[in-house]
Design a protein that fits this description.
The complex is a heterodimer of chains A (about 400) and B (about 250). By secondary structure, chain A is α/β, with parallel strands linked by helices. Chain A is built from 16 helices and eight strands. Chain A folds into three domains: about 40 residues; about 100 residues, D-Maltodextrin-Binding Protein, domain 2; about 230 residues, MetI-like fold (Orthogonal Bundle). In chain A, the strands form three sheets. In chain A, strands 3-4-1-5 form a four-stranded mixed beta sheet. In chain A, helix 8 packs across helix 10. The two termini of chain A are about 50 Å apart. Chain B contains ten helices and ten strands. Chain B has a six-stranded mixed beta sheet with strand order 6-7-8-3-9-10. Chain B has a four-stranded antiparallel beta sheet with strand order 2-1-4-5, with no helix packed on it. Chain B starts with a strand and ends in a 5-residue tail after the last helix. Classes of the chains: A alpha/beta (about 400), B alpha/beta (about 250). At the A-B interface, helix 11 and helix 12 of A face helix 2, strand 6, helix 3 and helix 6 of B. The complex binds adenosine-5'-diphosphate and magnesium ion. Adenosine-5'-diphosphate (ADP) binds next to strand 2 and helix 1 of chain B.
């Protein structure tokens, strides 16, 4: 009997141990996966896999960066001299252009002469730039390869354009999304902090116990509502309201996102702030009251300073909730990857972008990696937030010791 | 003359009758000790004089409390105004987590006094009265949490004195302190009674004997006896007082 119990105990211990091991391993694996895929973006050529840029052997241009290449294919740059070549106009060529130059008979019914014609083309058009599959290059091709600089972290973070699928060169600039995310979050906080803290104060210090007993579950319920529901609410109520109030063409704006996120951050801020306010020792409140301070003076001069670090934690965790929120924001902020210059224009946040685009990318492609790199940025944001929480908590403890 | 008085006091916590028909009055510049076994209602009685019990939701009072001839439970009375003229020192030192200076200045600040000179003068005077000035005068900006427990308690006394109360309530102010700090507090009380009227709850009979002019003995919510301290200790008129003082119970 005793032996049996010992075996059971050993068994439970093993289960507990393996559960925690599995959990930690999973978390670590997810992080490794995120970083491996995301960082992959920065070691890649911005061209799609197996695609190359070719020019004539006579063309002195050896290297182009993504911006130049894009300008060339958008026909913003039409002369080679602007990118370090001779004074010749640029002829654009991609594989699909081949039929403009050669008839179907010349190419063969199964395009068996395609490669050969590519070779011919570059000889005949020495000032052309070709964006073609490396498989289409014939033996003895009369052109040379143009190196395209890898995507840099700088371009990624500070780039202002996000055209993840444009040909031949996509743009992965996330600056507008960073600003969009920060603005939506900031707006959410401007709404949620005053509202949340006053509600918490009301619940902890003012409200009759019976009112509090009603309010508290209602607020907790708020945190259980799925974010899609908030999104619907925003779409149907807030967005039209904003549109009418400010006479806008579209109501899907930064402001709409801020309002919805603000509401979503409220339960976190209220609950943690209220708990913090309640930790103020009764003896300190009594000391203040006994000196003739009113309830409000006691609140402002004793209770709030005492709960400072708890309130800061509440705010930061509120930010944490807001910054990573996806669905609701996706639904109400419109979908414009411009840098928002006010709260009344559409924008796009990092998590919303990931959610919207991850479904349509090919596994392992550049776009896929770019979304993971976005994930890393979001991850770093939340890490910073969590470290700040720890820091604030610890400094709060120290100042009270 | 009477500084403070209690007339026909009954106090309930819900259905529980915590104080029964108490009548007591306090002369100016006297120290009155309230003694009695734990739970007999000493703190409840003391806290009637600055309406601290009002914070308790099921607290109910019957009777009349006056301070400086004013009924402090009258309808038109503003509680925070009343409390400004009555200082309180609690059982455990409870300084605010602020600087020493700001602790003493607190009562003035909530009164709207922000003039630097007035504050400086009051802080110095109060700390001197509380016999703490010499120990902290070079560290007024230091956190009140960083000084010793005995110093903290004297700081709390200074904080109470800063608003120039006429009555000071003390609820076992030395019970959390070491003997040396306790002696300092007792000395201090002796000095303070020159200017203030003091009501002090104490668990320590020797202490009551040393510092008080009058003693009130509470038992199960009743005031059994209230008289000059000497008389109470040497020749009490009630047998229960006699038993308590000679240590037969409590
Ligand atoms: N907030 C309260 N609610 C209910 N009963 C209380 C409360 N405070 C004190 N009491 C009761 O009132 C009686 C007197 O308490 P108290 O005045 O603290 O006694 P003492 O200070 O003499 O030890 C005790 O029986 C105590 O249990
Ligand atoms: Mg007591």
């Amino acid at each position: 009997m005793k032996k049996f119990r010992k075996i059971i105990e050993k068994f439970i211990e093993a289960v507990l141990f393996s559960s925690s091991t599995i959990t930690s391993l999973t978390v670590i694996l997810i992080i490794i996966f995120l970083f491996k895929e995301g960082i992959g973006l920065f070691k890649s050529s911005p061209l799609e896999k197996n695609y190359v840029i070719e020019v004539s052997k006579k063309n002195p241009v050896k290297e182009l960066n993504a911006t130049q290449l894009k300008a060339i294919f958008n026909q913003d740059i039409t002369n080679w001299s602007l990118v370090g070549g001779n004074n010749d106009s640029i002829i654009l060529f991609t594989t699909s252009n081949i039929t403009d130059y050669y008839s179907e008979e010349e190419l063969g019914s199964n395009l068996e002469h395609l490669n050969e014609k590519m070779g011919e083309f570059i000889i005949q058009h020495p000032n052309a730039i070709m964006y073609i599959s490396s498989k289409s290059l014939p033996v003895g091709f009369g052109g040379h390869n143009v190196k395209v600089k890898d995507i840099s972290v700088n371009d990624f973070i500070f780039g202002k354009q996000w055209y993840p699928t444009s040909e031949p060169i996509p743009s992965y600039g996330i600056w507008p999304m960073i600003i969009g995310t920060l603005m939506v979050t900031l707006g959410a906080l401007l709404i949620a902090i005053p509202l949340g803290i006053s509600t918490a104060i009301f619940m902890a210090e003012v409200a009759h116990i019976r009112i509090r007993n009603v309010l508290k579950p209602v607020i907790e319920l708020l945190s259980g509502i799925p974010s899609v529901v908030f999104g619907f609410f925003g779409l149907i109520i807030i967005v039209p309201m904003i549109q009418q109030t400010f006479h806008l063409v579209v109501g899907e704006t930064v402001l709409a996102g801020s309002i919805i996120l603000g509401i979503m951050a409220l339960p976190t801020i209220i609950t943690i702030t209220e708990d913090a306010l309640r930790t103020t020792p009764q003896s300190l409140k009594e000391a203040s009251l006994a000196l003739g301070a009113t309830r409000w003076q006691t609140l402002v001069r004793v209770v709030i300073p005492y709960s400072k670090s708890g309130i800061s934690t509440a705010i930061i965790l509120g930010i944490g909730r807001a910054i990573g929120e996806t669905m609701a924001v996706l639904m109400v902020t419109g979908n414009a990857s411009n840098i928002p210059h006010s709260f009344l224009v559409p924008t796009r946040t990092i998590p919303a972008t990931i959610a919207a685009e991850l479904g349509e990318v090919s596994y392992g492609g550049l776009h896929f990696k770019a979304l993971f790199a976005l994930g890393i940025v979001l991850f770093l944001f939340t890490i910073i937030i969590n470290l700040t929480v720890e820091f604030v908590k610890n400094s709060g403890k120290r100042s009270r010791a | 003359m009477i500084q403070a008085s209690a007339k026909n006091i009954n106090v309930w916590y819900g259905d529980f009758l915590a104080l029964k028909e108490i009548n007591m009055s306090f002369e100016p510049n006297s120290v009155t000790a309230l003694i009695g076994p734990s739970g007999c209602g000493k703190s409840t009685f003391l806290r009637l004089f600055n309406r601290m019990n009002d914070l308790i939701s099921n607290f109910k009072l019957e009777g009349k409390i006056t301070v400086n001839d004013k009924d402090i439970y009258a309808k038109d009375v503003k509680i925070d105004e009343i409390r400004k003229s009555i200082g309180m020192v609690f059982q455990k030192p409870n300084p605010f987590p602020k600087s020493i200076y700001e602790n003493v200045a607190y009562g003035l600040r909530v009164n709207g006094v922000n003039d630097r000179r007035t504050l400086d003068e009051t802080v110095e005077r109060s700390l001197k009265q509380a016999a703490l000035w010499d120990e902290v005068k070079d560290n007024l900006k230091k956190s009140a949490m960083s000084i010793s427990g005995g110093q903290q308690q004297r700081l709390c006394i200074a904080r109470a004195l800063a608003v120039e109360p006429s009555l000071i309530l003390m609820d076992e102010p030395a019970s959390a302190l070491d003997p040396i700090s306790t002696a300092k507090i007792e000395e201090l009380i002796f000095e303070l009674k020159k200017e203030f009227t003091i009501i002090i709850v104490t668990h320590n009979l020797q202490q009551a004997g040393r510092i008080s002019d009058y003693t009130g003995f509470f038992y199960l919510g009743e005031l059994i006896e209230h008289d000059k301290t000497q008389k109470m200790f040497l020749n009490p008129s009630q047998e229960r007082t006699q038993n308590y003082i000679t240590g037969r119970f409590g």
